[in-house]
Amino acid sequence: MSDSIKHECGIALIRLRKPIEYYVEKYGTPMYGINKLYLLMQKQHNRGQDGAGVASIKIDALPGIDYINRFRSVKNRAIDSIFGKIGKEFKKLKEENPQHADDTAWIWANMPFLGDVYLGHLRYGTHGLNSVDNCHPMVRENNWRSRSLAVAGNFNMTNVDEQFQKLIELGQHPKHKTDTTTVLEKIGHFLDEENQQLFDSYKDDYTNKEITGLIESNLDLQRVLKRACKDFDGGYAMAGLTGYGAAFVVRDPNGIRPAYYYEDDEVVVIASEKPAIKTAFDIDYSQIKEITPGHALIVDKAGNPELKEILPQGEKLSCSFERIYFSRGNDPEIYNERMMMGRLLCPQILKAINFNLKDTVFSYIPNTAETSWLGMMKGIEDYLRGYRKQAILNNKLTEQELDEILQYKPRAHKLVIKDAKLRTFITDNNSRDDLVTHVYDTTYEVIKKGVDTLVVLDDSIVRGTTLEKSIIKMLDKLEPKKIIIVSCAPQIRYPDCYGIDMSRMKEFVAFRALLGLLHDTGKESMIQEVYQQCVEAQHTSAFYEKNFVQQLYDQFTAVEISQKVSEIVKAPEVKADVEVIYETIEDLHQACPNHKGDWYFTGNYPTPGGTGVVNRAFMNFVENKAGRAY
């Protein structure tokens, strides 16, 4: 991706279903669960580059022993930092207590973090400081194990203000006004209530010590989650551990954020991505299941998993951007989807190059676009195959022409190579722009100067600044006749509020193109008209039911907006013609038929809060406010 955007986090949860001695006997180490958690997190490292955290629960630990542990880090190699610390604890414990080195029960009781249930989180911060305090899991600890809670999630809530106010009405005093705090405290509140109700029902017949066991055996996590989640608005996959050992992952009703699970007689595993589970446990993809939207996979204290409805399931609108860019491409479904995205772009590309393959070079911007590029090349080869067949059937070719056609192959080169990551400490805009031009290198002397057209595939074009400041300028130095930038994603027109840091409309090159077209066609007054509609609706239900900004985009075709984007990203000094091509919405849906969450592209949000965010974001733009719209 030529434009860096921050995106959703990753979760990993493991429940060991056997006593620790079982894993020592079968796998030779008490660290089996920890090692598997490490693998799950490393295989989802694409989801976390700002920090990581892990938590564990020892089920039925004796009093005086920590039953809940948590480690977090924001170091450059946060996962390695955390698990390196755990490994050192294990080594130190055995060295200092050689008499217990082979005593599995003693090691389990005395080693921090060694437990029965593990929760890992990978943070890709979309808002807030990159500090260890912002890393999940968040913990709400209590001497009553059944009241303790650790939560980690892949989510953004659109109604944080409303949730914050509800906590105040419940009698709480929240320390922070963030969606993470509100989620933790909201679930924690109803967990407390469930505990209290059970305690009250048992107190006349049992001792307090007996009641502890009864609560842990009978606590209804489904009811807790139903009460806590009933007014959440957002995209989420939230994982939690209770202090007594029950665990859960709950998913939003539209399935916006992903969550998958696997179970056998040894483990229950949950993660954000299927390839991580497959690799870590060496299983078939067919054994990995998707958590149903609106449901929670709840694993009770005994280790028994069950899918339970938390909220009524809505229309399945899982994020399509997930498929285009974020998820690991070694998932077979995602691999095939990305191949299809590239293939479906071919008609637009062939038209843009006037079907002149002889003078066209195909490339891509590393690395996530490579699979789509392979699909695009297969589409070009299919076109060539049909052209050859038709030429032979027409029988109008000389032997030499026929030989040339049969021998011809599309010209493909790796032209764009990312050389270094731009340092974030450079804040001066002029210095930054100058350095951005050197972030990428290119391959020289493969282009026919003044003759060739370069077709460069990218997975998406968000802000367009890297294209304008770096990519196109760099490619222009090769002196092609024309540069065509192709995006596997449709035009990103609207903000996201469900996990990706794309909330300020003026940053989107498609929105800048819209503003340019409104100016060019004398329709700029519509900006104030739509703004006024938003202002009048902001305290009514209409604000959350209608995306008022859509009517601005309705004034122009997608092709007209793409043409304007082409003008924007072409710097004045660029000599080559420049054209930008986007995947169409229809083709995206064809490529990803089971993942139709397309609100960034169409403005059709799956929740009322999302619609409210786009209207508020537009108001912020008109009012020149820089903050987020949620």
Fold and architecture overview:
- The chain is an alpha+beta fold.
- It has 23 helices and 20 strands.
- The strands form four sheets. It has a seven-stranded antiparallel β-sheet, with helices on one face.
- Helix 6 (179-202) crosses helix 8 and helix 11 packs antiparallel against helix 21 (585-591).
- Mean pLDDT is 88; it is low at 422-429.
Secondary-structure blueprint of this entry?
Layout: E1 10-16, H1 20-27, H2 32-42, E2 51-57, E3 68-73, H3 78-96, H4 104-110, E4 117-123, E5 138-140, E6 149-157, H5 160-169, H6 179-202, H7 208-218, H8 221-229, E7 234-242, E8 247-251, E9 260-263, E10 267-271, H9 274-281, E11 289-290, E12 295-299, E13 305-309, H10 320-326, H11 332-344, H12 346-352, E14 360-364, H13 370-394, H14 399-407, E15 411-412, E16 416-418, H15 429-436, E17 440-442, E18 453-458, H16 465-476, E19 482-487, H17 509-520, H18 525-537, H19 550-553, H20 558-569, E20 577-582, H21 585-591, H22 599-602, H23 608-622
Parallel strand pairs: 14-15, 14-18, 18-19, 19-20
Antiparallel strand pairs: 1-4, 1-10, 2-3, 2-4, 5-6, 6-7, 7-8, 8-12, 9-10, 9-11, 12-13, 16-17
Helix pairs in contact: 2-9, 5-6, 6-7, 6-8, 11-13, 11-21, 17-20, 18-23
Number of helices: 23
What is the total tally of β strands? 20
Distance from N terminus to C terminus (CA atoms, Å) equals 25 Å
Runs in which pLDDT lies below 50 for 5 or more consecutive residues are: 422-429
Task: Name the strands of the widest sheet in spatial order.
Answer: 3-2-4-1-10-9-11
* Helix content, binned percent: 40-55%
Derived structural class: alpha+beta
Strand content: 15-25%
Q: What's the Cα radius of gyration?
A: 27 Å
Shape label = globular
Q: What is the average per-residue confidence, as pLDDT, rounded to a whole number? A: 88
Biggest beta sheet summary: 7 strands, antiparallel
